[in-house]
Each structure stands twice: as structure tokens, then as C-alpha cells.
Amino acid sequence: MLEQLYLIFDSLFAPIIYMNPLISIMIIGSILTIIVFLINKFAVNRKMVKELKDRMEEIRDQLTQAQKSGDKDASNNLLSEMMKINGQYMRQTFRALIISLIVISLFLPWLGHRFGGMTVANLPFDVPVLGNNLSWIYWYILVSFAIGWILNKLLGY
Hints:
mainly alpha, elongated
């Protein structure tokens, strides 16, 4: 079954995988990052998440006041409310996380199969632990972080 998935991905990305591995992984990593952003956009109710975050901040301030004044009942009630709101927040974000992990877990083994054992980038300097050669996974991570940061700035998340 895994080989069939590899064949599907090979045919979908045929023009890209025959380019320089540096470029191939950059393009595929960018596509995956955009897919994850789209999943987050459609699976998470941003308005609700913002309201929940704002409410947790309010409760945190009230909790600090209650703890300073020594009001244990108010502190316990506020902690209970914060836990309830945190649970709602987690439910909102967890769904997108699971879907994203499934998508990425389909692609990463294929990328490892396709580009494993290759040095994708030679750096002009040594990075502690990594040296000056980057394998596909380190290059993928760098590309994903860079594209994710750019998307965050452009979309204002």
C-alpha cells in the first residue's frame, strides 16, 4: 500500500521531483505548508479562538487579583472557568492539528523515500550538530518555517 501511495505522489509531482532536490523540496514544502494553513483556516473558527483567548486573559487578570486579595473561593471559581474555556480552545485547535498531522504523515515518508540519503544543501558554514550539509528533512523544516512565517505575516495570523 505504501508503494502505491509513493507511485501516486510520484505521478502527481513528476515534473517537480526531477528538478534539483533543493528546489523540489522547496516547492513541495511550500505546497504542504500552504495546505496546512488552508486546513487551519477552514477547520478553526478564528473569531471564537480570539474570543476564548481574550476571555482567558481577562480571567487570568481576575485570578491574579483574587490571589493577591486571598479570596480562595473566587480563585477556585476562576480556575474552574479558565479550565472550561481552555477545553473549548483546545477542541477548536485540536481538530485542525489532527487533520494537518494526517496530511503531513502521508507526505513525509514519501519525501524520505524520494530524497533520503541525499545531501540537499551545502552551507558555507558549520551549524552545530548538523555540520555544513543539510539532508532533505532539515531543508524541509527550514522551508516550512520560512513559508509559514511569511504566510503568518501576509495573512495576519
